[in-house]
Amino acid sequence: MCSTLRVLKRLVVSGENVGEALVPYFRQILPIFRMFHGKSSTGDAVSGQRGEDIRKLIRETLELFEHHGGIGAFLQIKYVVPTYE
Question: What is the reported pTM?
Answer without folding.
Answer: 0.81
